[in-house]
Structure of 1-phosphofructokinase:
Amino acid sequence: MIITVTLNPAVDEEYVVPEFRPGGWFRASETNRSAGGKGVNVSLILSQLGYSSAAMGFLAGFNGEFIRDELRKKRITTNFVHVRGETRTNVYIVDEIGHVETGITESGPYIPEGALARFLNNYDRMLTRAKFVYIGGSLPPGAPQDIYRELVVRAKNKGIVTLVDAAGPSLMEALEVGPSIAKIDRRFINQMAGISLTSLDSLISLVSKVHEYGVEWATTSYRAYGEVFFTPKGVYLAEFGRKGLVSMFGAGEALMAGLIVGFIEGMDVEDVIRFSMACAWEDALHIEKGVSSREKVEDLMKEVTLEKIS
Ligand SMILES: O=P(O)(O)OC[C@@]1(O)O[C@H](CO)[C@@H](O)[C@@H]1O
């Protein structure tokens, strides 16, 4: 079973507003309300690719009910601990013309110690049936900064493949215990380096350091439509075309879902990269999050450009 962990899920409200700018009044040309948060998105995309999963984390209030219903409609197992308050709403404005995206996120409900303990108990129980654990997104208030580290250790002790997709101190803590795969937020890499990394060489030398912790695969974005993959077979730069792109919102999770499928199906390194890039690309071709079909993803795979750079 694949487990996705989202400690801070969200209801995503997307508004398409051509030529949006701060300070103006606009009418959205399109709106889209969806269940979100990184792990929730990954579970939804996995189901579009034909894989069932169990989604875990915390939910609260009406938004929490909405997310649970959306997941259940897709036959995704839900194992969330309920907390007081309201699961956050995140607002995104997509300007199709300027290709600019603006986001406003809430911090999420407070997680008391008792709820955390219940979650960890559930997590341990779910691990007995898991072969892959995805852990992603920001931490809600009250969650300790080393929680991802703890989740990776518990899964690794059972020989389960782990993927961490985060930023900031929670990612740093998790990297030290060597998750199998890490998606490293580009802005965070700049923060690690203390400067904005513009050259591919400096990016490679910095990310290569995470291999020292035992991370087998690491990936980070490079330029708008590219991704650098650090794999056991070398470093690759992968890119997809720009034509027809509507919104990159959620494309990161499509990339992650593709990677998980590639791993589970035992694809070779280059196919894992092509498949995950094609998932992200297909996701970016429409406003709705997720991929339209596996067939469409497979069609795009051939058009992903891939270069082995070291
Ligand atoms: O605040 P976080 O947890 O880092 O990111 C949350 C989020 O922006 O990530 C997804 C898109 O990547 C959205 O579904 C969700 O609103």
Q: What stands out?
A: The chain has a mean pLDDT of 93.
